[in-house]
Amino acid sequence: MRAEYKVLRDNIRNNLLNGIFWSIGFNFVTPFIGVLASRLGATNSDYAMLSSVPALLTILLTLPAAMVITRFRRQKRIVGGLILLCRFFYFLLIFVPYLTASPITALILLVGLYNAFNSVIAVAWQSMIGELIPAAYRNRVLAKRNIWTGLCGMIIAFVAGWSIDRFPYPYGYQLAFSIGFAAAVVETWYFMKLRIPSEEPEATVGPKKHRPEAGKERDERPQSDAAAVHWLEKYQLNHGRAYYLFSASAIIFIFSWQAVWPVYTKIKVDTLQATNTMISIDTIVGAIGMLIGFQLWARFADRKGTGWALFGSAFTLAVTPYFWLYIPGMSWAYLYDFIGGIATAGFQQAVFNRLLEIVASRGRQRAIAIYTTLTQVSAIFAPIVGMQLYSGVSYEVFMSILGTARVTGSLCFLAILSPALVKWAAGRRTETVPGSVGAADEGMDNGAGTGERSGTDGGSSVIDTDGAAGGDMGSSPARNAVKRDRGHTL
């Protein structure tokens, strides 16, 4: 037992340091992508493409890559290599200002590749967390990680923004992006120090916990009922009604959430003429809101359940577009992003925990990959639809429409907590490993969950769906997925 606890302590420490260096690299780069795009002459369509192209590449890559990774028992080295490759796109950004042929296209492509690989990493990491950190510790461990990544993000974002403005263009960006890549190398090193129980010799961590494979559940349904979902089992898609109800609700909300992201960026950079330093301050304010939000929503989830925390945070996010009807200057944007940071912290944390609750431990990685793919479908079209709507109606009408759509989406999370749907969702269930997170029994229950993730909605980052000031690996609307990964708080 002592050896197992030592491994757990080491994993908690290395996971924390991994998150800190992730935050350093992330905040040297992503908050300033929108400003760089403006310097490169981005149009309305380009701002939309900065969100849509990453989503498209994420869809094309995430599920196939996850299916390949799950074929290997030792996955840590594969994921570590993907982290290093993904962060290498930080370094490649330093060459974009020198391109003479469509530099904005190169920027969009690099941002898209980063997000696509980041989503694959997020899926693998989220699956590993269920094995690395027992459920009894997970809420505190992930909350502590979020707090430290948020604090580091605030400091780094301010230093980076101030420094970029002190150097002539494009040297400030190149210096920041280079430092971001250097931090990513350290991030990868700490990830490789994590000890995955299913990949360790039995003598070092006790009885080996083999990583469950998708499609190995023992079916308890009647034969006729099992035949009705034969095609789901054939393609290993039978994750239960609760999972698909949750995914459908998330898609509806996330579509309306993401539709306004490119407009926030355009307003700050083009209308309010925000500098890199202003964007840094905005990022810091959003991060402070998230630090407060992690604690508030974690306590709320412990008392009321993850399902109610998810609805409450989503509804808070839903009303933020109404605030933006009055935006005379960046000072008001700071206030709105502070409120958005509080709400986003709860949403990112609750949506990730809820997913772990609902999904059985067996087949978890594939289920997370499917969820990420489904939510990224909306991320392709939402920014384009949002920017087209913004171009066709007045600003006030646009924000009112998107606010109403978000409220409708948040109510979907409330609807799936109704007793009738809870009972219906529990109608078909598969056996899970005893004590595993995500047993079908608790899939649609209101029980308390665990914790994780970050970002700010009107935030300054357009590279990741998780936000400029905190978060975790990957986009997943989960952050990143989550998105993680896993960048907006409003």
Automatic annotation (TrEMBL):
Q: Where is this region: Disordered?
A: 202-222, 433-490
InterPro entries registered for this protein in UniProt = MFS, MFS_trans_sf, Sugar_transport-like
Looking up SUPFAM superfamilies in the UniProt record yields:
MFS general substrate transporter
**Localization in the cell:** Cell membrane
* Molecular-function GO term, any one: transmembrane transporter activity
Composition bias, kind Gly residues: at what positions? 446-458
Say which domain of life the source belongs to: Bacteria
**Keyword Transmembrane helix listed:** yes
Q: What are the transmembrane regions? A: 20-41, 47-66, 78-98, 104-125, 146-164, 170-192, 242-264, 276-296, 308-327, 333-356, 368-391, 397-422
Q: Which keywords, in A-to-Z order, does the entry hold? A: Membrane, Transmembrane, Transmembrane helix
Topology class, membrane: Multi-pass membrane protein
Q: Where is the composition biased (Basic and acidic residues)?
A: 212-222
Give yes or no: UniProt keyword Ribosomal protein.
Answer: no
GO cellular component annotations, sorted alphabetically? plasma membrane
Entry's PANTHER family?
A: INTEGRAL MEMBRANE TRANSPORT PROTEIN-RELATED (PTHR23526), MAJOR FACILITATOR SUPERFAMILY (MFS) PROFILE DOMAIN-CONTAINING PROTEIN (PTHR23526:SF2)
Q: What's the protein called, per UniProt? A: MFS transporter
